[in-house]
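Here is the promised in-class demo. Please do not try to memorize the tokens; focus on the logic of going from shape to residues.
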């Protein structure tokens, strides 16, 4: 039996026909298969509503930015915003990261972001967590030399777990980040409202 890869919702509220149409149009126009591979490439896994993806696209206008997430409300939010604001360097993949990896085996990234992945705090659910040692092995493979991986969470056990895996990985030096590393996404603000400590780390490949 195939392992279940996604436990979240693909939709939180109804998506209008216009938004669906815009998304299809945007995907045709910004097709990942037609990426200019000479340009720098950033990947964000689990974009949520896409705040950070849009922020990255404006900060790095000469870099292509790919967002991967099965959550369709976020995808259509980004495609609508990109069309209205003439953003040309965003590419969207509306499925799980594992599927993305199988489909685009040759892509290599300058930066990879995973911000506030679902924490799955209950012990019996922790095996559902996206970032684990298997996931990180894949990240090492697809990050370019000197490429950056950025991770944050307000779940302390998740953070410690990822930190331990990385500390036990030869040649990987992690840096604990004390400042806000991106703009404040929906889940960043949620963590702040709950007064949860937000832990962030980075490593270079
Ligand atoms: C808690 S939300 C965080 C969203 C956003 N990064 C933020 O900071 O607001 C986690 C996101 O990861 C996505 N996600 C979960 N599993 C995934 C997977 N296997 N591949 C890609 N995205 C995934 C979910 O759909 C959800 O949008």
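The designed amino acids, position by position:
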């Amino acid at each position: 039996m195939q392992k279940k890869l996604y436990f979240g919702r693909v939709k939180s509220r109804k998506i209008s026909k216009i938004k669906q149409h815009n998304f299809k149009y945007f995907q045709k126009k910004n097709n990942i298969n037609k990426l200019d591979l000479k340009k720098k490439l950033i990947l964000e896994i689990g974009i949520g509503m896409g705040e950070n993806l849009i922020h990255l696209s404006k900060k790095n206008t000469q870099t292509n930015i790919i967002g991967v997430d099965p959550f369709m409300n976020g995808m259509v939010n980004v495609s609508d915003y990109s069309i209205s604001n003439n953003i040309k360097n965003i590419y969207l993949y509306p499925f799980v990261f594992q599927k993305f990896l199988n489909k685009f085996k040759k892509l290599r990234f300058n930066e990879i972001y995973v911000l506030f992945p679902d924490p799955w705090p209950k012990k019996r659910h922790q095996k559902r967590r996206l970032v684990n040692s298997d996931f990180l092995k894949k990240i090492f493979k697809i990050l370019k030399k000197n490429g950056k991986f950025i991770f944050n969470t307000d779940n302390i056990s998740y953070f410690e777990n990822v930190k331990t895996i990385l500390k036990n990985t030869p040649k990987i030096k992690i840096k604990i980040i004390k400042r806000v590393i991106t703009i404040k996404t929906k889940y960043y603000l949620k963590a702040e409202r709950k007064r949860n400590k937000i832990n962030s780390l980075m490593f270079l490949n």
